[in-house]
Amino acid sequence: MKDYSNATWVDPSLGWKPRAVSELPERMLVDFATKCNLRCPMCPVWGSDDNAIESVKGVMPVDAARRMLDEIMAATPLVQPSMYGEPLLIPDLKGRIVDMKSRGITVAMNTNGLTLTDELANFFVDVGVDSVFFSLEGVTRETLNTIRGINKIEKIESAIFRLMRVRGDKELPRIGVTMVKQDGNAHEEEAFVARWAGIVDCVRIGLIFENGTYPGMVTPEKRLPCPALYQTMPVHNDGTVTICCLDGFKATNVGNIFKDGVNAVWQGEAFAKVRYYHETGQWDEVPFCKSCNGWAQHEFEDEIRDGLFIRRSPQFVYYNRIDRLNNWTGKLLGGHPEPPTTEQIRTTVAAAE
Ligand code: SF4
Ligand code: SF4
Asked: In the prediction, which pLDDT does 163 show?
């Protein structure tokens, strides 16, 4: 790891001891294509005005994407093939997925599911896509319309059941549904969990990010450096790297992997400077992070209830099917501690009865 502790921007009186940074990120969010068939008002990119969107739309060149994958494959990271795009709209999606899977990369996607055909569902299962989570947001057409501007809830639900049917009892993909809780759908949270918990492998309830923070999050008192800065690299379709996936308009540009490579940006001076400010509590020096409480997302509490393994963090609640926990493993854990095995849970429950 490159040592920046004597850099000109470091204040020696703070006695900064840089935290270790891996050679390559363990998780990458890669916008292979910034294209979407929706315009969710909550979306930091597609919820903006047309001129702003035009500046970030685009498709990642295939050769540059392959060079990136060649470099990162040694670390066998998790790649989420979209950040501000609908992954099913990536041109030659199958080719991009084969590029990743053939290099031993874990592939996890969040989709709105609108264009998931039988053929694509079969491909995902055959090629071993690791995880597919559907952003569903509610249980009624009205609520879906409020949150995502469409009322095709039956179409998305059919896509979920299509993938579940094709996968059957196979281990992968891990299948989930998600809700980002906000004013327009909070009244359906309970019904959402009741509708899907125990059916899909995981129901994930998150909080909305608004005006630079998660207003619904209970934030611990003592602020710590954000774990995302040490785990996740967000890559935009032109190769630009930002410090955070919440930065859709690239305000925190710390380099370009097409120009310099993944390792050079991940361990580069611009990224190191941001980590220095976090590690020394100089939050004012990173305006994008200044008022954000997203750093608190990695403290977990577990519970076994109603036949489910429930994990809570300040930002998320995960309702997991106990009999499908075996596929929540490896890089899919994304910073989570390993959950107990199905067998361990059964033994714990039997002992408590
Ligand atoms: S589906 Fe996702 S990428 Fe598309 S507008 Fe909605 S939140 Fe944004
Ligand atoms: S503190 Fe917030 S804005 Fe900054 S990197 Fe973490 S999640 Fe992103």
From this structure: 98
pLDDT tens per residue, range 94-104: 999 999 999 99
pLDDT tens for 291-320 read 999 998 778 899 999 889 999 998 999 999
Residue 111: strand pairing partners: 134
Looking at residue 163, its amino acid is L
24 closest CA partner among 276, 336, 265, 337: 265
Q: How far is the CA of 269 from the centre of ligand 2 (A)?
A: 18
- The number of the ligand 1 atom at minimal distance from the alpha carbon of 148 is 6
Residue with CA at minimum distance from ligand 2 atom 5: 244
- Whether 289 and 283 have beta carbons less than 8 Å apart is answered as yes
- Residue 280 Cα to ligand 2 middle (Å): 15
Residues in CB range of 255: below 8 A, 6 or more apart: 240, 241, 264, 265, 268, 270, 271
Cα(207) to centroid of ligand 2, in Å?
Answer: 14
Burial code of 288-315, b = ≥16 C-beta within 10 A, e = fewer? ebeebbbbbbbeeeeebeeebbbbebbb
Residue 176 has pLDDT above 80, yes or no: yes
**What is the Å distance from ligand 1's center to 41 Cα?**
9
Say whether the peptide bond before residue 173 is cis (omega within 30 degrees of 0).
yes
Question: How far is the C-alpha of 313 from the C-alpha of 336, rounded, in Å?
Answer: 10
Angle subtended by helix axes 118-127 and 93-101, to nearest 10: 10
Say what the pTM is: 0.95
Residues 124, 10: Cα–Cα separation, whole Å: 48
pLDDT in tens, 231-244: 999 999 999 999 99
And the tokens for 72?
């990162």
* Per-residue pLDDT tens over the stretch 149-169: 999 999 999 999 999 999 999
Q: Is the CB of 175 under 6 A from ligand 2?
A: no
Q: What is the pLDDT of residue 77?
A: 96
Task: Quote the CA–CA distance of 43 and 110 in Å, as a whole number.
Answer: 14
